[in-house]
Amino acid sequence: MTVTNICFKLPALLLVGILMFFVPVPGESDAGAQTVSGARQATGGAQTLADILARQKGLKVNNDFRRNAIGNPDQAASIRAPLGTLGGVSNAEVWRALRFGEADVTVSTRLPAARATIQSTGMTWLKFRRGPLITYGGGLLVAVIVLLAAVLAIHGRFRLARPPSGVRILRFSAMERFSHWLLAGSFVILGLTGLMQLMGRAFIIPLIGKDAFAPIALAGKWAHNNLAWAFILGLILTFVLWVAKNIPERGDIIWLANAGGLFSKGEHPPSKKFNAGQKLVFWSVILLGSAISLLGLSLLFPFDLPIFSHLFHWLNGLGLSHLFGAGALPERMPLQQEMQLTQAAHAILAIILTALILGHIYIGSVGMEGALDAMVSGTVDEEWAKEHHSLWLESVRDEEQKTPASENIAAKGAAERG
């Protein structure tokens, strides 16, 4: 399996679990609806008492009996028989075809999405967006911020066990720092503007009003759409520059088992250039960032890059949907529903990644002494490197011994100037 397949398909498993309740799929709750075929034949395909009772209980009902009952011209009655002038299609069947996007209609815009004159999942998406998405997504971000503030207040900053040596070592090159800040800067702006688009109606409009919010939202939308390209470029550069240093190793298990030395003052498990925690952040950014970018591209070019119909087809082929107690996922859906699922998944993954990055920002700024220097000047103190990345420091010293003295002097001079 290629890295590209991993980047795009691994987050799909997470999405299926989160979105399962959001996608109308047949499950155990519609068993009653699937056992009344005889009753439907007696009523001409109409819903039965079992369907009505299931819907009143809030259970999902399999709508295939409606989706598939949209008329058949080949079975049309004669011109003198009932429904004969309708060509085998009753008024109820016409409305069913319109509801499920199967009607043969002509629209003036000629756009594929315009053919859906009735879109029955719109309110489901809106309730999810205004309810669980904002409530649980916003709650997660607030909880992370409160937790980090509590850690800072109780534990304070993680400081070096011994005083700095004054010797500076080059840790990140100018290109590495550029790719990091390109990715980080664009992510921060995308995160803020995305939250404003998602939660502005609920939290900002009540404070400043609609007239003041409108230009802010318009500017935020423009920034969100255009800075997405900077994020994608930074994601690619970061992957190319650091993927070789972030391959999991056996030593990472030791680092995780000791919680990175979090509870032992001055003693940190040996690690190379990136420890296990940094590797987890790296792969979270690459995998979730790639999925978010792909979903974002689908939103930038609506109706041209459908994702979920192909994703559900792939998951059905693997039989993964049955692991969640559901039947086959819908592979045929209106384009509007595609966009609704895409927007929901884009927001969910972005909120999860933001929660992870908040921890990374904390550790890299106020949480740990000397960590920010690595991404500002590119250099770190030798004592910092010895405590946090001892194996990396040893490899740097080994390289210095193999390098001619003139090149070492030049490298030290560049590190001191940094």
What does this structure look like?
- The chain has 17 helices and two strands.
- The protein is mainly alpha-helical.
- The protein folds into two domains: 27-115, no CATH class; 122-417, Transmembrane di-heme cytochromes, Chain C (Fumarate Reductase Cytochrome B subunit, Up-down Bundle).
- The chain has a two-stranded antiparallel ribbon with strand order 1-2.
- The two termini are 41 Å apart.
- The relative contact order is 0.13.
Q: Give me the number of helical elements.
A: 17
Average pLDDT, rounded to a whole number, is 80
- CATH superfamily of the largest domain, by name, is Transmembrane di-heme cytochromes, Chain C
- CATH topology category name of the largest domain: Fumarate Reductase Cytochrome B subunit
Topology:
Elements: H1 3-19, H2 37-42, H3 49-56, H4 64-67, H5 91-99, H6 122-155, E1 168-170, H7 174-203, H8 205-208, H9 210-242, H10 250-257, H11 276-300, H12 308-318, H13 335-367, H14 371-376, E2 379-381, H15 382-388, H16 390-402, H17 405-417
Tag the structure with descriptive keywords.
elongated; Fumarate Reductase Cytochrome B subunit; two-stranded antiparallel sheet; about 425 residues; single chain; mainly alpha; 2 strands
In short:
With 418 residues, the chain is mostly helical. It has helices at residues 3-19, 37-42, 49-56, 64-67, 91-99, 122-155, 174-203, 205-208, 210-242, 250-257, 276-300, 308-318, 335-367, 371-376, 382-388, 390-402, 405-417, and strands at residues 168-170, 379-381. It starts with a helix and ends with a helix.
